[in-house]
Amino acid sequence: MSSSPYTIVVGLEVHVQLLTESKLFCGCSTKFGAPPNTQTCPVCIGMPGVLPVMNRKAFRLALKAAAALHCRIASFTKWDRKNYYYPDLPKGYQISQYDLPLCREGWLDVPGEDGEEERRIRIIRVHLEEDAGKSLHDEQAGRADSRIDLNRAGTPLLEIVTHPDIRSPAEAKAFLQELKLLLNYLEVSDCNMQEGSLRVDANINLHIPTPDGTAATPIVEVKNMNSFRAVEKALAYEAVRQWQAFQETGRKLGEVPKQTRGWDEHAEVTRPQRSKEESSDYRYFPEPDLVPVTVTQAEIDEAEASLGELPADLRRRLRQEYGLNAYDAEVLVNQGRPAVEYFRRLAAASGDAKAAANWIQQDVLRVLNERQIAITRFPVAAEALGEVLRMVRGGRLDTLKGRQVLAHMLQYGVAPQEAVDALGFEEVDDGELRALCRELVAANPKVIAEVRAGKEKALGSLVGQAKKRNPNVNPARVKEICLELIART
Amino acid sequence: MASLCELTAAELSGRLRRGECSAVEVARACLDRIAAEDAAVGAFLSVEPEWALAQAEAVDRRRRAGETLGPLAGIPVAIKDNLCVQGRVTSCASRMLANFRSPYHATVVERLLSAGAVIVGKTNLDEFAMGGSTETSAFHPTRNPWDAARIPGGSSGGSAASVAARMVPLSVGSDTGGSIRQPAALCGISGLKPTYGRVSRFGLVAFASSLDQIGPLAQSAEDCALLLETLAGHDPRDSTSLDRPVPSYTSELEGSLEGLRIGWVPDHFTEGLDPEVAEAVREALRAYEGLGAELVEVSLPHARFAVAAYYIIAPSEASSNLARYDGVHYGYRTDEKAMSAELEEERRALQAAGDAQALEEMDSALVRLYRRTRAEGFGAEVKRRIMLGTYALSAGYYEAYYLKALKVRRLIREDYDRAFAKVDVIAGPVTPAPAFRLGEKLSDPLAMYLFDLYTVGANLAGLPALSIPCGFSREGLPIGLHLQAPALEEGRLLRAAHALQQITDRHRRRPASPGPGGTEIRG
After folding, report:
1. B244: helix, coil or strand?
2. Residue A43 falls within a domain, yes or no?
3. Is residue A17 part of a domain?
4. Which of residues 70-89 of B touch A (CB under 8 A)?
5. The pairing of beta strand A76-77 with beta strand A293-294
6. Does A383 share its domain with A462?
7. Residues A335 and A284 in one domain
8. B366 touching A (Cβ < 8 Å)
9. Who's near B420: CB < 8 A, 6+ residues apart?
10. Domain boundary pick from A260, A286, A302
């Protein structure tokens, strides 16, 4: 990035749906995927005369997220109406929060790429609001075949706005991944972009050093990005586009109105959206149908106490207490809280944290993937797997055999020793093994010469022969004994 | 010989309990009276004879079976047509909702039904309760039963007229700036606007959410107390509803007014107050002195800004509350074929003229749907208020209008706090003059708005206030007395009103009936 002629400046506006059973202001279900307009009531479809009643659970989840994002939580917060007309907004206004949001000024540390330092992205504000419904129609044609599904209308949304602290498309993606991980950990949101439970808009411009100081390009709001990858690609595209536009026109921030562009997934370009849609005056005013919400210190304390260890804490702890490298720590933490718990138990049972991390990443996760199950439903307890790891560590089993033992345990639901017995992996007596090695060393002078000449790899042939003679030998032990014998002769 | 429908609810209730008449007889008497007289008055937008008789029969059946009945068992009630009744039209006297059937009951309707009240129909109002004369109803005006050439007041004009013409003993209205008290005063009946939050607003089609309150209209303070007992109470479906116990208003009606401090505001009696109204109110004050009350001069210095603040706040909230009527989900929608043809014609004309910019700026079908639907569905007064409110909330004007109005509102509230530190009740006129003629102020909205000058303060401050008859003009038009009290002191207001009604009979007077009477009372 240091060689780039500009700095990319990005701020994100993220909407996540909260994991509540019911909507923000009525009792309707928020479940995804129900037939259109089956999860509605007079309140969420804005019938005449209805009134909203706040869902306490949604408010508690929002508080939890705010606490985890290190925000200053307001002791007094209120609701406002954001007025605009759209067919999927049945009341003609959205109940949101304007000048007294739930909380302000927090931050989220984003792990750096490839061992780089983590970067702190500051949060401007977090507030609660209700979702709109969904419109399905052909806007270009303007035909009368529009369809509206109001199942989503009134679902609680948390809006999280960052400072323009993000410096690259990859960092934007990393921020979103970290945010998703955090909210998953907190069970605040499942952040599923496919189901629309996480939506993101980005504001981006470039800061360009010029002889007259730093020039900033006009800020563009990018919308319609449907995956984290799309965010990365759209921002990368947009940075290049702005750089080219700047070189062609020299236009700077403030010289043109803020533009909104939509990401075209197929063409992989951003395109301007109609300016008509942007110039809205939302006529915010306090929602008279709801009373302001006061938040007590006890509620804030409760939210903080309910957080548990967060991903960043866990990563740190896995590195410091268990000596894992950054990569392993990240992979484990990314699997979620239960995976980290499993790791801790496995590390304790096996006495080898590094091996525990490897086995989880290579073996446990593969099985989870194949079976499409969560780690909480993994049939082999950490303690049992720990026993297998101890056998491998102690030389009773090599890694391959260890895997076979695990496979057997998974298949038949048996204990480690039982699996070892069933597979016939008896431990070879050390005296027996020494005798075998002596034979091999004596019979392979060529190999011995190579080893003496420094080609230790040549020992592989002896190990191979030993295994042919007795499949239960421990290859590492064979190597060890052979080297000892060679050194002595 | 008085007809059953001329009795007060309290009297009817006694007769029903004693088996001197049946609920069906009472319902019939009211339905007959409506059939005979409402053509001339126009109090109702819909009458439900079959449903009413079925409800009445159910009450009679339950009474015969010895079941415990609710406090309003068998009493006919009319409902303002901005309150939702499940399965029935709730039109708000607007073209927009002319055919709209609510899928649910308003909380007050549920309460009325479970109290055994017999709902006979829905009454006329100014469109979406915006107006003070019931002339802005999209369907027909309501006439004052005391003089058919005059307005009954508004916006609960239909509710007030239905009681004044003795078509029903009880009527439910809503009051945003005086919409219960003003028509009660102009029709010579009693009407109470409760403390904000005392009665659930769930199912009341919102005009201005921070001001709207549902309340009773009846022949007497006693009947208002009876009806309020059923209407009031906490509702978990309304976040602004107060979670406070409801006193037994009817059992606390009696009691001496000895030592009651009644405040009066000199400003009320200066500019613009009709001398006949002033005299009637003064006479009522003297009567209170006779009852042992003490008159105390108080001042409400910011009251003169109340109308201005009200006509910023109420329209602002209304502009948002009425945004949902857009022709998309329910209610009136413009003729889409005509709309498409109109758009096509415009497009062709612009193409022919080669006006590329105008073509670019042409409405989308969606925007035109909104425009046409709202232009056709709303009447002039509603549009005026939507425009006022939209303007007041717009960027650049918000601080100067909406926020300023909120500040005035706070000052008005503080005025009341100070006044109520010195007095228990504030008394004064409800309206500057008796009922005006139909059409008189229709083309002068400002004159119409200024008619609210005495009533909007209680809404802005969220206080309870009532109107009871205190006299008649030389032309025979009723004059109302306004009583206001601190929050949740409905009981105090009703006691004061009841005391006056024990020594006067103005509330007993009724307009001459233009049509034949109802069922004769036996015995």
Report:
1. coil
2. yes
3. yes
4. 82-84
5. antiparallel
6. no
7. no
8. yes
9. B263, B426, B485, B486
10. A302
The pair of three-digit structure tokens given for residue A134, joined into one six-digit string? 């969904």
In the block, tokens 């208002």 appear at B224
Provide the pLDDT confidence category of residue A423 given band limits of 50, 70 and 90: confident
**Token code pair at residue A419:** 């699996």
Residues A72 and A103 in one domain: yes
A429 close contact with B: CB closer than 8 A: no
**Residue B46: active-site member:** no
Q: What CATH number is given to the structural domain containing A446? A: 1.10.10
| Residue in B3, B13, B22, B80 annotated catalytic | B80
DSSP string, A156-196: EEEEEEE-S-B-SHHHHHHHHHHHHHHHHHTTS----TTTT
Question: Is the same domain home to A16 and A75?
Answer: yes
- In this structure, the answer to whether residues A122 and A175 fall within a common structural domain is yes
Contacts of B182 (CB under 8 A, 6+ apart): B132, B153, B154, B430, B431, B451, B452, B455, B467, B480
Rounded-to-integer distance, Cα B172 and Cα B159, Å = 7
Q: From first to last of the 523 residues of chain B, give the pLDDT tens digit.
A: 468 999 999 999 999 999 999 999 999 999 999 999 999 999 999 999 999 999 999 999 999 999 999 999 999 999 999 999 999 999 999 999 999 999 999 999 999 999 999 999 999 999 999 999 999 999 999 999 999 999 999 999 999 999 999 999 999 999 999 999 999 999 999 999 999 999 999 999 999 999 999 999 999 999 999 999 999 999 999 999 999 999 999 999 999 999 999 999 999 998 789 999 999 999 999 999 999 999 999 999 999 999 999 999 999 999 999 999 999 999 999 999 999 999 999 999 999 999 999 998 899 999 999 999 999 999 999 999 999 999 999 988 999 999 999 999 999 999 999 999 999 999 999 999 999 999 999 888 888 888 999 999 999 999 999 999 999 999 999 999 999 999 999 999 999 999 999 999 888 888 986 544 333 333 3
How far apart (Å, rounded) are the C-alpha atoms in residues A288 and B409?
A: 14
Q: What is the interface size between A and B, counted as CB pairs within 8 Å?
A: 105
Residues B314, B320, B326, B329, CA torsion sign: negative
CA distance A264 to A116: 32
A407 lies in the same domain as A451: no
A2 assigned to some structural domain: no
Euclidean distance between CA atoms A45 and A89, whole angstroms: 8
- Position A459 in a domain: yes
Domain that residue A399 falls in: 309-423
| Segment 286-315 of chain A within 8 Å of chain B by CB | 288-291
Which residues of chain A does B104 touch, with a Cβ-Cβ cutoff of 8 Å? 42, 47, 50
- pTM for this predicted structure: 0.89
| Partner-chain contact A48 B202, CB within 8 Å | no
- Quote the number of domains for chain A: 3
Domain shared by A284 and A317, yes or no: no
Domain edge (last residue) among A423, A446, A475: A423
A365 and A394 co-located in one domain: yes
Give the chain A residue nearest B82 (alpha carbons): A49
- The secondary element (H helix, E strand) that includes residue A12 is strand A7-17
Catalytic (active site) residue B239: no
Adjacent-strand bridge partners of B46: B122
Residues of A in contact with B323 (CB under 8 A): 83, 85, 91-93
- Which residues of A are less than 8 Å from B106 in CB distance? 49
State how far residue A213 is from chain B, nearest Cα, in angstroms.
34
Distances (CA, A) of B25 to B28, B56, B117: 5, 8, 14
* β-strand partners of A80: A96, A286
For the question of residue B155 being annotated catalytic, the response is yes
Instruction: Please state, in angstroms and rounded to a whole number, the distance separating the CA atoms of residues B225 and B71.
Output: 11
